[in-house]
Amino acid sequence: MSDNPPIEFAFPDLGRWEKGDAPYIHVRDSGKPGPTVMVAALTHGNEVSGAIVVDDLLASGLKPRQGTLIFSFNNIEAYQRFDARNPFKSRMVDEDFNRTWGRLDRPATTLETRRAQVVKPYVERADLLLDLHSMHDDCVPLMLCGPLDRGVALARKLGAPADIVRDRGHAAGMRMRDYGAFGDPKSDRTALLIETGQHWRASSVVVAKDVTARFLAETGIVEPSDLPADWKQPAPAQQRVVQVTHAVATKHGNFNPARAFEGQEVIAKAGTLLGHDDGEPVTTPYDDCVLIMPAVNRPLRAGVTVVRLGRLI
Q1: Residue 235, domain member (yes or no)
Q2: Does residue 219 sit in the same domain as residue 279?
Q3: Measured between alpha carbons, how far is 249 from 274 in angstroms, rounded to an integer?
Q4: Cα dist. 7→87, 194, 204 in Å?
Q5: Can you give the CATH number for the domain in which 103 is found?
Q6: Which end of the chain is more exposed for a tag (fewer CB within 10 A), N or C?
Q7: How far is CA 38 from CA 117, 247, 294, in A?
Q8: pLDDT tens-place string over residues 239-257
Q9: CA-CA distance, 85 to 23, in Å (whole number)?
Q10: The dihedral sign for the CA sequence 173, 176, 179, 184
Q11: Which residues are bridge partners to 290 per DSSP?
């Protein structure tokens, strides 16, 4: 019997979107001044909730009232290799597409770097970018807004999800969200990355639709009435911002958690035991420590981030 999470929705056939301004990239220009707005899906090939959103918007014929709207299915080849018997494998083909963005000035030697070179000119055009992701584990939705104040400000304007995570990027390589002007403190270009929930939960599709509708309306590129009426959900009573301070990685994959942990759980006391890595204790560094996307409840490879720790700000 499979230990894989259930798949609660049908995957779209994306072959009809192959022919665009570039393969699986579509640009819709209003012909009027305004921002260039990009919505990207399938940065990881098994993160399908965003693909459902982009597929629906393309099929609806949505056009911007001003500015330019770009839709992209990023790692389409990984998606096309999806196998429900081994669903986590199709996250990528050769390497993680979302760790390549600091190396795009070098020769492209993997499928993902070659694809990133295709996507790159469209990312560079975008004033505002929403990158639609989902998670390996069942965690609450998170908006990863980057290290800059303008990312936090835009996430607050959207009003959802409840948790905004302010982080400095990924140690394993630059993400698309942080590439170029998006990571430049002197620029006003802004990118957000939404983690909608567990990859194949129906609720992840609901979150992806809600946040995309909020994002597109906030950019002013469309009117709320241009979007499906049932996409926007009630806003949370309030949002909270968590500043990432630590990333705990396992040295050799031998992390033993002290117990099962939940995403965004707040650990009240400093020094609380989270587990042991190669027998060494790992504890919370301060009071009211937030556990961000813990992966401690499953087997891990050497060097993988076990959990990120954050402060409420």
Answers
A1: no
A2: no
A3: 12
A4: 10, 20, 11
A5: 3.40.630.10
A6: N
A7: 16, 29, 29
A8: 999 999 999 999 998 999 9
A9: 28
A10: negative
A11: 266, 310
